[in-house]
């Protein structure tokens, strides 16, 4: 059943760009799901918290913007370099940050994002508050990518690769180690799990996913500034991960899609006649808060783990209870 659902979802995702006239929602949703997939891996499997995942999205976007516009690097090289730099920056800042725990780590990661935003707002190299315009189109095999549908399929392919990586990672020996880490760091350490190295590895993987998302988003826009990566977006990534289900490979995708559709409904509501001009952002902020509270109270495990639990209980009830013949004869 699960494989059928996955195949149908993949077919629907592959057909969707052919039917849509505007690819913006599809590309943004797929790239957001890529970021949230990495964050869900970090929060759900490694048991850590991050409110600054947008920092690594910004690193990816800046790699493309500065690399192609300022330094003249070929677009494809910049695209490849973005996830590498995203992972490297995550490992660099993670070395001191991941020694913190709980809300200290969450606020520390948020501080990294705020520092990057400040640099983008003041440093001429990064736009100095104005931003960087004129990012050239992505070139693949000598062909310029100008069709938005190509970006949709690139985002979809990147998300598929990320899901495969997460699937194999969590089922490996390393994955068993980080699951033990989420349960109890002291117990994991006594079992021989390298605590800091495991955290750094997962954080770097999540940073690489975010870096690629930022890079492809920069080509799609094509413009970056500090306003492209607001701190509230990083809070939204956390909400999406919680909604989909932490500790689930598919949770990031499901949570992103569910919340993105919910925000589209609120956006349409704010555009109805008679609504005040400030209704859009107010409804968006309220929408995130309402969803987070509802899920924490009533669906704390998230959509994917909850549905998996329901399916497992139905399967258990469907299995007939057999009584050994010797017991039946008394």
From TrEMBL:
Tell me the membrane topology, using the record's own terms.
Multi-pass membrane protein
- Cited InterPro entries: ABC_transp_permease, LivM-like
Q: What Pfam family is a match, any one?
A: BPD_transp_2
The transmembrane residues are: 30-47, 54-73, 79-98, 110-135, 150-170, 200-220, 232-254, 261-279, 285-308
Q: Which GO terms describe its molecular function?
A: branched-chain amino acid transmembrane transporter activity
Q: Does the keyword Membrane apply?
A: yes
- Location of this chain's protein in the cell: Cell membrane
Give the CC-aspect GO terms: plasma membrane
Query: What is the top-level taxon of the source organism?
Result: Bacteria
By its UniProt entry, which CDD domains does this protein fall under? Answer: TM_PBP1_LivM_like (cd06581)
Per UniProt, the keywords (alphabetical) are: Cell membrane, Membrane, Transmembrane, Transmembrane helix
Query: Where does the UniProt entry say this protein principally localizes?
Result: membrane
The leader peptide range reads: none
The name on file for this protein is: Branched-chain amino acid ABC transporter permease
Name the source organism.
Answer: Microbacterium testaceum
